[in-house]
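Teaching note: in complex prediction, the entire set of molecules is handled at once rather than each chain in isolation. The prompt given to students was simply: 'Predict the structure of this complex.' The entities are:
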Amino acid sequence: MASERDTPVALKDEAQLKQKQMIADHFSRLGRSAESGEKNAYTFVPGNLTELLLSFDLLPVLPEINALQAGMRGKSKEYIATAEKLGHSEDVCTYVKCDLGMMKSGNVGPTGEPMPDPSVLLLSYTGCFTFLKWFEILKQEYDCPVTLLHVPYQGDGVITDSMRDYVVEQLKNTVIPALEKVSGKRYDEDRLKELLARSAKAEDDMVWVLESAKNRPSPIDAYFGGVYYLGPIFTAFRGTEDAIDYYRCLRAEIEQRLAQGQGPVTPEGQIDDERFRLVVEGPPNWTNFREFWKMFADEGAVVVASTYTKVGGVYDNGFRHDPSRPLETLAEYCMGCYTNLNLPTRVEMLSRYVREYSADGLLINSIKSCNSFSAGQLMILREVENRTGRPGGFIESDLVDPRYFSGANIRNRLESYFQMIEQKRVGKSA
Amino acid sequence: MKYSVGIDLGSTTTKAVILGESGEVLGRGITNSRSNYQVACDVALGEALLNARFTLLGASLEASGIEGEKRERVLQRIELGFRAQQYLAQLATLNATILGFLEPQAEHSGLRLVDEAGQESPEKLRGAAREILDRMKAEAPELYAAGAERKSDFFRDLAGSRYLNLAEGVAAEKEISFDRLAGWFDKAILEVENRPPEKDDFESRAVAALGSDAVDDPALARVVRDAAAVPLKKAASAGTGYGRRTLPFAKEEIRSEILCHGLGAHAMFPLTRTVLDIGGQDTKAIQVDENGIVTSFQMNDRCAAGCGRYLGYIADEMNVGVHELGPMACKSKRPVRINSTCTVFAGAELRERLSLGEKREDILSGLHRAIILRAMSLIARSGGATDEFTFTGGVARNEAAVRALRTLIHENYGEVTINISPDSIYTGALGAALFARRDLLGDGRDRALEKEAS
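The expected output is the structure of the full assembly:
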């Protein structure tokens, strides 16, 4: 997921190199699509329908990923400024502004190759109202077809049969016909099933990797490292052989680290002394990603579970894509993604993480420009503290607007939080 | 005697607290932290050590059977004598610095000896400076006479207030721009503050401060000499505050100010459960458990509106000292509602209100309420105000802020005991000193504190 400049040196093992190659190939295909005639679909990460798109040979483009890449490459500041010049207010989601700014600046993707104009906008609405507005703007910009999948919110914390039917009906009657029209291909359910079967294989290894953090010391960092591990499964590669290979390779590497009792690899080297185990809620900051990670690594703080790595889809309850029920399984994946969960479910999930991953506490990184994540977070924090008896911490930053990353302030709060955990331990042991 | 020291390097002031061998507070020291943190650290520690000497001297006088009233008188005389000497020493530095600017070879571009129009002769400017500084020197003893009231203990405030006052007269008399005279002070005071303190010879100065008593009462002089001779040895130290990374301490001796304020507040008021600290550039709402350990906290983010510096900015806008704001605001009968929480906007609102004829004290009262309203939001986010509530930091010394806090806490949380120590500005440094002492004891717990808690 990361570009050359930001790729942590120590992570460039085989799996990392493979991922880089996969991404480079994908963007290169997108870059050549004007000549090759390949079509694409712009869509969002949460609950994405990658397998369905791939079954129509549509290349997925994920504007959120392009925005976070721009943040890591130090481009987001100028892109956001460009969008603000167009009249988008300071309070608009910075992913949106970054993405629009990038388009207005020639739409050059993270690998330096031009991005194709969208062939279709697949707007799956999963818990974020801004998604609607975002693609409304893109539609105006490109005058391309939009197909909307309305995903019902899990307001009662469950997926009912009628909710599932509602999504499946939309897939059948709206989304699939729209994709057939754009791609010029008939819906091929057998092909979709093959893709879904491959997804499930990769998902098993991916889940194993995330759960390896239950070990002490944890062989991975499930937030900063986690976003790299999640790249392929949440973007353009779920359902491909490449994804299966990537996760097999990654799992083997982590198995080895685990066998040798090694801690996670960070850009500053391996963490040998795991002092704090944290559960983190909320997306990371991308503009100062490395500096942010270092604040944790320097203190021996390892993130053992995070919700951001569940933003594309949640696998905790045993969910895997099921090729025998292709449209139903896609519907369930969509409705199950993290941003589509209600607050009690999120509290329950976070409390379970704190217990199951033997964490010292929950830390929330509250994102200024992401209300769908941030609303209710203080309530979540208090509730998880009450249920687990472990102290919570709260920091604030932004996705890709560098103006909202105050290093000194965040470091100050993190240090206080770590020392608070330490003091609690001293109090208990004495 | 071995001591533990905590230093709180804040954005406005630097504080040091020294604890004796059984955990009692021996001394406190404070100084302005401006550009040079290392110097601020040295000055605060030097002040705290001096203060500790007075504590020890008081104890020696008591042990030697000198009765209460006389003891107080002797201590006060020595302390005032000391302060006066310190003031004079700093005044001499100020004098040399300002006159230095006015030397022909001085290359202080902003303070050019002769202005562009070339109307003022160098001699005239030097004369003006000398006149102000000589008068300041002459009135120094008055400032430290027994019973005299001083609005601040900082040289910057004391000397600044006198300098500007005298400069006004001299400017009018000699037809020199007041701003120009004021500019000299503003520049020179930084150099005075950045000069490391001289190592005080406590013994000779204390005996000198005794004056005729030293001759008439050799026993008293001996007690003073003995107390001065007790060796003070640093056994443990811890640092906190915004500048903590620049402190000359090892990493493990550096503590988060949030933890220090929590523990410090607990030591001052053991029943504390909620702490509000309003410092120069941040506001912290902290919840602590029965041992003074932090359980939750919230801080202002991205913006320092509503912190001590907000008051500093307002004071500058109104052309008064920051310590004068509280008393002025307390005179208000009809507080104005100030909506803006942005410091710069509040300045604009202030000017507009003044132009509309609102009273200064009413506007100031509204501004103090605006600060506390911001703090109320942090308190709510950290978990609310739980009995007992302790208010710390420099702003806790401002009576108008305290009044607004009492009202708002009462309105929102009902009857809550609100503690404010006269030494509240030292809370962070005290917490740091206690952490240092815990480390020294090696068991991670402070025995004296535990006893207190049980």
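Point out the following to students. The longest strand of chain A covers residues 361-367. Chain A has two domains: 4-187, 192-429.
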